[in-house]
Design a protein that fits this description.
By secondary structure, the protein is α+β, with helices and mostly antiparallel strands. It contains 7 helices and 20 strands. The strands form 5 sheets. Strands 2, 3, 4, 5, 8, 11, 12, 13, 14 and 15 form a 10-stranded mixed sheet that branches. It has a 4-stranded mixed sheet with strand order 16-17-18-19, sandwiched between helices. Strand 17 and strand 18 form a beta hairpin. The radius of gyration is 21 Å and the shape is elongated. The termini are close together. The C terminus is likely disordered.
Amino acid sequence: MTTDGIVVIDKPAGWTSHDVVARVRRQLGVKKVGHAGTLDPMATGVLIVGVLRATRLLGFLAGTDKEYLATMRLGAATNTDDADGDVIAAADASGVTDDAVLAATRALTGDIMQVPSSVSAIKVDGVRAYKLARAGESPELPARPVRVAEFEVLARSGVDVDVRVVCSSGTYVRALARDVGATLGVGAHLTVLRRTRVGSFTLADAQVLDGPGDLLIIRLADAVAATFPRLDVDEDTARRIGQGQKVPLPGVLGPTGVFGPDGSVVALVEPRDDGTSRSLVGFVGASSSVAG
């Protein structure tokens, strides 16, 4: 039997996020599968895949903060801001000091306005930016606010700089590399990108697709409890919340998982101004398991 829940995959290089979803769908024998937070083909690491009712949770998981390990190569800018693109400008980066690199990363730490990469999935007049870029166009993407909580330089070897980034959803690490290169005046792009955490889920939770045995599914209730504050309620309150009714929930300050007396997750809710709850997504209804 395949149950509602999430599968944390260590995405291999060369795979698209959709490739991973297709593989998980085949392995589990279910159609209702999706992913949270796209990873580019060159990137590896944590990709959260939702199964059955857990697909309702994916948008909220995608909105959690993320951690990456990356390598920036100074001295060359590419049209994709990573090693998969063509070099569009090059400069001698041998004279760039470590202090200059640190200063550039610190300038991009905190609340910043970031112009997304031209090959991002953001839509421009209804068309994905990466489709326009690959067609030879240069889509203009407006800067948007993101938060880079940590931008740490781990090591440097010549023009290659290893970094660790903790950032909000919607932050492009490729764009951080691009902007570091622009600040230093020599250009830069990513050669390695590995996502090590999405919210509370890390590489320690991740599985490889070609590994032995069946895929381990983290139950929907456990995934919600690991990501959001937990509120246990009685049967009547659980029923009312499951029906979408407004219910007073004192002490609820933000998105919170509501659990019934049997331990099942009823809904993800947030507080209203009047002190009652508003359901963000409900989990009562569809079958919780199917034959795999």
